[in-house]
Each structure stands twice: as structure tokens, then as C-alpha cells.
Design a protein that fits this description.
Layout lengths: L2 H19 L2 H4 L10 H20 L4 H14 L1 H10 L5 H25 L2
Length: 118
């Protein structure tokens, strides 16, 4: 298994588990423009992260997992934008975290696409 696939799988498995263990922080960054209950989006994205982590962990499904991870990272980018907007008046540390997630998403997408290409 490539180191990139291992790293993405671990990241997604950990984040997915956190969506279920501590959903409130994730609920808070679900864009308010989305209809329905934020918890549904939190749990759905957590399940997607766990499923994609599994795809990345298995050699036969790794390329599919890379493509799915790239799509997921694009899909959750609005939550990172929501977090950045909501945290714009917080401490410098909190702003750094919120704003730092934005370019990190591009790196994650690139890494996922690298895995998808094999």
C-alpha cells in the first residue's frame, strides 16, 4: 500500500470516527444554506469518510477510493468555508486553524487524485 493511500485512509478513518464520537463540532460547520438537520450531514459525511477509508485500504479498490476521496474533499470544502467565516472574529490561533484548512483541502484533493491515478 502506498504511503499516500495509507495516510489518506488513516486520516479519513479518524475523521469519520470523530463524526460519530463527537458530532457537535462538525454540526457547527455544516453550511446553514443546506436544507435539513446538520446532524444528518455530519453522520452522512462521517459514514462516507469511513467507507472511503476502507476503499483506500484495499489494493483492489484503492484507485476508486482515491477518486471518491477527491470527490469527498471537494464536497466538504463549503464546510471549511463556513468554518472560516464563522471563526473570523476568534483568536489568531482559531483563525489560523480555520484559514489553514482552506489550502490544505487542495493538497488533500491532489493526493487523492494521485492515488486514483495509481
Amino acid at each position: 500500500m502506498s504511503r499516500t493511500a495509507i495516510a489518506l485512509s488513516a486520516l479519513l478513518a479518524g475523521a469519520g470516527a470523530l463524526h460519530f464520537a463527537r458530532p457537535a463540532p462538525f454540526d457547527s460547520i455544516v453550511p446553514r444554506a443546506l436544507p435539513g438537520d446538520a446532524r444528518v450531514y455530519t453522520l452522512a459525511s462521517g459514514a462516507a469518510e469511513l467507507g472511503i477509508a476502507g476503499l483506500l485500504a484495499v489494493p483492489a479498490t484503492r484507485r476508486l477510493g482515491g477518486a471518491a476521496a477527491a470527490a469527498l474533499f471537494v464536497a466538504v470544502f463549503p464546510a471549511n468555508l463556513q468554518m472560516a467565516a464563522d471563526w473570523s472574529d476568534r483568536s489568531a490561533l482559531h483563525r489560523s486553524i480555520a484559514y489553514g484548512r482552506l489550502p490544505l483541502q487542495a493538497v488533500l484533493i491532489a493526493q487523492a487524485l494521485h492515488v486514483a491515478r495509481g
